[in-house]
């Protein structure tokens, strides 16, 4: 059933697309490889699980989880990005890694390090198309992921704020001279990327019915791979990269078993980095980013 | 010395060795996020040679370091085509691949882990760590150390000065990997057990943190960083669950307040100046 595997791969890829888009926003506009994003991915899933467990309605739980991720992301902006944006490139990267370790361990302190099972919110109803099975939860999350990313692409292309953000991506100093209010727009980027990645975490929990403090490390880092494969700083690249990584993962499980997933996914990443560092859809690097 | 103190000392020695394996490539401007993978190569190679082929530790541990060095030299040629953040991600991917390969290698126990027959005593480990520190201090005073700093500051100008930039970069990468493999080989022989899960991303990341927090301007920075950030969590052990939380908060604070690291060149100078003043 190779077609079935292709569909599963695309559905999983939808979640990688969300994470890859968050990374690509941060690096494309701000030149900041934000390693706190896998932590926010985890926070989205775990907080939703915890609040539903506390008896909240699922919609409210998700909303609060997204808001919390946005708030933490603003903290990252204040403490990691802002003071060090002109320093050595490693420093904000390391500082944002500090946030990842902090979030993981706070969650472990509060809820322990075990994997928790997430309640099935969407009734287990499968759609069948001539022998192919698509779960409703899968389909809904895939549509949400792709929809949100397409909306972002439209937003960056046509709205005034989007144009300003693209100007910052082109050249921050020139953008500032032209009167763009960086102090107001930069936090927007952090909120956007936090909401996307946390949404990815929630959709992952919905689909696979599990959350754990380490899901950011396991899943979120593959989002980085997706971003690179597609091309840093390109939204369409993130879409292509995310879907490709999802396909590689599912197909390698299908053909070789679950054990070799990391070898193939990261081998693919390494290959792309060596052969075509700009990624599949990225513009060739004229000057090094970050 | 109590068993606990010995344990902490050995842990510190391993962290110091690891920190210098990250420091040397970093001195040439390479951020290696896959150092745990090279530790795994050293650990598994030497353990296999000791266990299955009956080599003595005197030959199997150096062989582990050498294997790691060889692999690094081979992969350095394609990997060092990338720079900066791309290099960091390429080494990150490499570390993930190596760990995943060992996790599936049945010959060395795969996911169940691999027991090691020989045993290295704590004092030998500490002596080896001291040896690594001395070697690095020595390297930093040679022309080689100067070349690496020059490449970090401006590779083009260094090239124009007639230095073989590419060769230097590959050698820094490979020697760093060799030190990592050496540490890994000792690790396996000391704890008598290795598992692939130990050599994960976070091990690489924490090692990089020791170096950056200690400071990369001087050769003693990694030592200070490794000592400070090994002993600090131990001192905070009273609040067991919270120590990593506090550790992470400290990372963020340190980067905010003292991004150049604990030990800087100017700090060393001012300390030295005070000493001279007292002598007069």
From TrEMBL, chain A:
UniProt keyword terms in alphabetical order: Amino-acid transport, Cell inner membrane, Cell membrane, Membrane, Transmembrane, Transmembrane helix, Transport
Matches recorded under PANTHER family: BRANCHED-CHAIN AMINO ACID TRANSPORT SYSTEM PERMEASE PROTEIN LIVH, HIGH-AFFINITY BRANCHED-CHAIN AMINO ACID TRANSPORT SYSTEM PERMEASE PROTEIN LIVH
Membrane topology according to the record: Multi-pass membrane protein
A cellular-component GO term for this protein: plasma membrane
Ranges annotated as spanning the membrane: 6-25, 58-79, 91-109, 129-156, 177-204, 224-246, 253-275
UniProt-listed GO biological process terms: D-alanine transmembrane transport; L-alanine transport; L-isoleucine import across plasma membrane
Protein name, UniProt field: Branched-chain amino acid transport system permease protein
Main location: membrane
Source organism of the structure: Azoarcus indigens
GO molecular function (one): L-phenylalanine transmembrane transporter activity
Subcellular location: Cell membrane
Family, as annotated: Belongs to the binding-protein-dependent transport system permease family. LivHM subfamily.
Automatic annotation (TrEMBL), chain B:
Transmembrane regions: 6-24, 61-80, 87-113, 119-139, 170-188, 208-232, 244-268
Location relative to the cell: Cell membrane
A cellular-component GO term for this protein: plasma membrane
Alphabetized GO MF terms: branched-chain amino acid transmembrane transporter activity
Keyword set, alphabetical order: Cell membrane, Membrane, Transmembrane, Transmembrane helix
InterPro entries with a match to the protein in the record: ABC_transp_permease (IPR001851), LivM-like (IPR043428)
The UniProt record lists the keyword Cell membrane: yes
Topological type in the membrane: Multi-pass membrane protein
Pfam families registered for this protein in UniProt: BPD_transp_2
Superkingdom classification of source: Bacteria
Protein name per the record: Amino acid/amide ABC transporter membrane protein 2 (HAAT family)
